[in-house]
Specification:
The complex is a heterodimer of chains A (223) and B (449). With 223 residues, chain A is of the alpha+beta class. Chain A contains 6 helices and 4 strands, in the order αβαββαβααα. In chain A, a hairpin with a 6-residue loop joins strand 2 and strand 3. Chain B has 10 helices and 20 strands. Chain B has helices spanning 3-22, 44-47, 94-110, 137-145, 191-203, 252-269, 296-341, 348-372, 379-407, 413-448, and strands spanning 26-29, 32-35, 41-42, 48-56, 60-65, 71-72, 80-85, 117-120, 127-131, 150-154, 159-162, 166-175, 181-189, 206-208, 214-216, 219-223, 226-231, 241-249, 278-287, 345-346. Classes of the chains: A alpha+beta (223), B alpha+beta (449). Chains A and B meet through strand 2, strand 4, helix 4 and helix 6 of A and strand 8, strand 19, helix 8, helix 9 and helix 10 of B.
Chain lengths: 223, 449
C-alpha cells in the first residue's frame, strides 16, 4: 500500500514539474496582467453590484472590485487584460452606461481611467522566503540531528529533507496540474504544510525515542 | 487554597480574559465608549495599499544654440532651439527597464519598506508599485521616480564628479557643544576618484589676486535639479571623504528631521541613478479587496471545526475534556491580547500563523489528555505524566519555534508577521499550559478524591 502511495506521489511530482516547465503556473488575477478601471461614482456603492455588472459586461468570472481612497465614492475594477483596445473601449462604454443608469450619474467614458497593470513575477514573491527559510531549515536539521542521534542522525536528517521537499513539491504540482491560480493563499499554505510535516515527524521521532529508552530500561532491569 | 476554589478562580480568569480579548475593554471617553485594547495592525493585503504608477517620461527639454550652432544656456539672438526627449530612444530598452526595477527595489529595501509589490511592463517600462500606507509612504514614493543623479559641477556647469565616482554616502552626527548636534553626510569617493577630489579641493578655493581682492572659485553639489550646496574649499581633502553638514540644532524634532533628510539622500545615492526618467501617472490609496464580509464564511467553517473539536474532547475525556476546552479558549484569548499589545502586523501569513498556533495547541491538549487518561488514581504519577507529556510536546515544537525565531529577523513583512505570530504562539502555549492548564488539570484529581 505504501509503495502505491509513493508511486502516485512521484507521478504527481513528475507531472507537476513537466507542467511547470512547459506551461508554467497560472497566476491569480491580482498577480497577472490586468486592466484597472477607476470610476468616480460620487456616492456610496455596493461592491457586489459593481462586480455583477462587470462580470456581465466583460463575460468574465474573475473580477476584483476595490474602493479607492477613503471617501468610499470611487471604485477600482480589475479584469484580465485579454481584450484588444477597441473591444476594451466598447465594453468600458457599456459598463459606464450601466453604472450611470444604476447610480443616476452622467459619467462619460473619458471619466474612466484605464490602466494596464503589468504582471508580478511569481519568482519575486517566492524569493524573499528562500534565504530565510533555508537558514531555518539548516538549524532545524542540526537540531534534529543532535536530538535524534540515537535514531541515526544522518537517517533522521535525510527523512526530514525528503518529507519536507516531497510535501512542498506535491503542493506545487497539484497547483500546477489543476491550474489552480497562484494567489495570496499559496505561500501561507506552503508554510502551514512545512510546520505540519515538521510537527508530525517530531511526534514520530519522540515516540521512537521513548520506545527506545523503555527498551534500554527493560534490558538493564533484566541484567 | 481550596483546590475547587482555585479551579473556579482560574475559570473565572479565563472568562474575563476571553471577554476582554474577544469583546474588548471599554471605558467612557467623552460621548463615546473607547476600547482600551490596541487595534489590530493589518498588513497591505488586509488593510489596503498605496498604488503608484509611473510611466517613462515623454517630456522634452529645449536646447538653445547660438547663431554659430554652439549650445548655450539661454535663448540667443538669431539662435535656434531644439526639443530633445529626456529619454532618448536608445535608453528605452528592456535591460534598462529591468535595471530601473532593481534600483527601485534596492532603494525600497534600504529605506526598510517592509512590504511592497512591483509590477513592470517590460515592453513600455511602465511600473506600478504597491506600498503599505503609513507616515513614510510619501518618502518611499519618491524613490520610485527620483533619478538620483549626483554631480559636483564647476561654475560653468562642467561635471567634475558624479555617481560613478561615489563609493557610498554615510550619515553621521556629532556634538558641537553649545550649538547642539550637527548632522552631516559623508560622501565617500572610490579609490580612483580620491586624487580627483584632492585636486578639486586644491583648485576651488578662495585666493587673493595681485590687487588684494578675494577671488572665489566655487563648485556646486547637486542631486538631480536641486543644488545642495555651493562652496569653495578651505583645506585639501586627501582621504576621499567629503563631509557636508546638513544642519546643527539643539531641538530634538529638528534633529530627527535632519537625520531623516540625510538618510533619504543616503538611500538615494547609495544605489545607482535611474537610467530613465519617469513621471508619476497615478498615486492613490486602494482599499483591500478582502473585507470583513469575505471572512464570514471561513470564520463559520473554522468555528464549526473548532466546535466539533471541542465536542470530541468533551465526549472522549469528560470533565478533563471540558476543562481542556475552557483552557483552549483562554489560550486563544491570551494570544490575541499579546498580538494586540505587541503591535504585530497581521498579514495573511500572520493569520496562518495564528491558525497554526491554534492547531498546535489543540494537538498539545489532545496529547496531554490522552497521556493523563486512566492515571487519575495517583497524584504523583498524574503530575509526572503531565510534566512528561508537556516536555515531549515542547521538544516536538522546538523546530517550529526555530522557524518562528529565524523568521522574526526578516525585514519582509509577511515573513516577519508569520514568524512573530508563531514565536508568540508557541511561547504562550508553553507558558500558558505549564501554568493555567496544569493547575486546571491537576486540581481535578483532588476533586475526584
Amino acid at each position: 500500500m505504501k509503495k502505491v502511495i509513493y508511486a502516485i506521489l512521484i507521478c504527481i511530482i513528475i507531472a507537476g514539474i513537466v507542467v511547470i516547465a512547459t506551461v508554467g503556473l497560472k497566476a491569480d488575477l491580482i498577480y497577472s496582467k490586468n486592466v484597472e478601471l477607476d470610476v468616480y461614482i460620487g456616492k456610496t456603492f455596493e461592491k457586489s453590484d459593481i462586480e455583477d455588472m462587470t462580470k456581465e459586461v466583460f463575460s468574465v468570472d474573475d473580477v476584483i472590485v476595490q474602493e479607492i481612497e477613503l471617501f468610499e465614492d470611487m471604485v477600482s475594477i480589475k479584469i484580465p487584460d485579454t481584450l484588444s483596445e477597441d473591444d476594451l473601449n466598447s465594453k468600458v462604454e457599456e459598463l459606464n452606461n450601466k453604472i450611470n443608469e444604476k447610480y443616476e450619474i452622467e459619467n462619460t467614458v473619458d471619466d474612466i481611467e484605464i490602466t494596464h497593470n503589468p504582471k508580478i513575477k511569481l519568482s519575486s514573491m517566492i524569493m524573499p522566503y528562500v534565504f530565510i527559510l533555508s537558514i531555518s531549515m539548516v538549524i532545524i536539521l542540526i537540531f534534529v540531528g543532535i536530538r535524534y542521534k540515537k535514531l541515526g542522525a544522518i537517517k533522521t536528517i535525510l527523512t526530514y529533507i525528503l518529507w519536507i521537499a516531497a510535501t512542498e513539491l506535491v503542493l506545487l504540482s497539484v497547483i500546477a496540474i489543476t491550474r489552480f491560480p497562484v494567489n495570496r493563499m499559496v505561500i501561507p499554505m506552503g508554510l502551514l504544510l512545512l510546520v505540519g510535516v515538521i510537527t508530525i515527524l517530531g511526534f514520530m521521532n519522540e515516540n521512537k525515542l521513548t520506545k527506545l529508552s523503555l527498551e534500554d530500561k527493560n534490558k538493564k532491569s533484566k541484567k | 487554597m481550596n483546590r475547587g476554589l482555585k479551579t473556579i478562580l482560574i475559570i473565572l480568569l479565563i472568562v474575563l480574559l476571553s471577554i476582554i480579548s474577544f469583546v474588548g475593554l471599554f471605558v467612557q471617553d467623552t460621548k463615546f465608549m473607547k476600547n482600551l485594547l490596541p487595534d489590530y495592525q493589518l498588513g497591505m493585503d488586509l488593510d489596503g495599499y498605496r498604488a503608484v504608477t509611473v510611466n517613462v517620461s515623454d517630456e522634452t527639454e529645449t536646447v538653445y544654440y547660438d547663431k554659430d550652432g554652439n549650445r548655450v544656456d539661454e535663448e540667443a539672438e538669431d539662435g535656434t532651439t531644439e526639443e530633445i526627449p529626456v529619454n532618448t530612444a536608445d535608453k528605452l530598452t528592456k535591460e534598462n527597464f529591468e535595471k530601473v526595477k532593481k534600483i527601485v527595489q534596492a532603494r525600497l529595501d534600504d529605506y526598510n519598506v517592509a512590504e511592497y509589490l512591483i509590477r513592470l511592463d517590460e515592453d513600455t517600462g511602465t511600473m506600478t508599485v504597491e506600498l503599505p500606507e503609513n507616515d513614510s509612504t510619501d518618502t518611499a514614493t519618491q524613490y520610485i521616480y527620483t533619478k538620483g543623479e549626483f554631480t559636483i559641477e564647476d561654475e560653468n556647469g562642467n561635471v567634475l564628479l558624479d555617481n560613478s565616482n561615489l563609493d557610498m554616502v554615510q550619515v553621521g552626527y556629532s556634538n558641537t557643544g553649545t550649538a547642539g548636534t550637527a548632522v552631516y553626510l559623508s560622501f565617500v569617493f572610490n579609490k580612483d576618484s580620491e586624487e580627483k577630489l584632492k585636486e578639486i579641493t586644491n583648485t576651488y578655493v578662495t585666493t587673493t589676486n595681485e590687487d588684494g581682492e578675494e577671488e572665489e572659485k566655487t563648485v556646486s553639489i547637486n542631486i538631480d535639479d536641486s543644488t545642495l550646496l555651493e562652496t569653495s574649499f578651505d583645506e585639501e581633502i586627501v582621504n576621499g571623504i567629503l563631509p557636508l553638514t546638513l544642519g546643527t540644532t539643539t531641538d530634538s524634532d529638528t534633529l530627527s528631521t535632519y537625520i531623516e533628510q540625510a538618510s533619504n539622500i543616503a538611500v538615494l545615492l547609495n544605489n545607482e541613478e535611474l537610467p530613465i526618467e519617469y513621471t508619476v501617472d497615478q498615486n492613490r490609496f486602494i482599499k483591500s479587496d478582502i473585507e470583513l464580509n469575505d471572512l464570514f464564511i471561513p470564520a463559520i467553517v473554522l468555528g464549526a471545526i473548532l466546535l466539533i473539536g471541542f465536542i470530541v474532547l468533551i465526549v472522549k475525556y469528560k470533565k478533563l475534556g471540558l476543562l481542556g476546552v475552557i483552557s483552549y479558549i483562554g489560550y486563544i484569548a491570551v494570544l490575541l491580547i499579546i498580538v494586540r499589545y505587541t503591535n504585530l502586523v497581521i498579514t495573511i501569513e500572520g493569520i496562518f500563523g495564528l491558525l497554526i498556533s491554534a492547531l498546535l495547541n489543540y494537538i498539545l491538549l489532545v496529547y496531554v489528555l490522552h497521556s493523563l487518561k486512566n492515571k487519575e488514581k495517583d497524584l504523583i504519577e498524574y503530575k509526572n505524566t503531565y510534566n512528561k507529556s508537556m516536555l515531549s510536546m515542547v521538544l516536538v515544537l522546538i523546530p517550529t519555534m526555530i522557524i518562528g525565531i529565524i523568521l522574526c529577523f526578516s525585514t519582509w513583512l509577511p515573513i516577519f508577521s508569520f514568524g512573530t505570530v508563531i514565536f508568540w504562539g508557541i511561547l504562550t502555549m508553553a507558558v500558558y499550559n505549564a501554568v493555567v492548564t496544569r493547575i486546571l488539570f491537576l486540581n481535578t484529581i483532588k476533586i475526584k478524591e
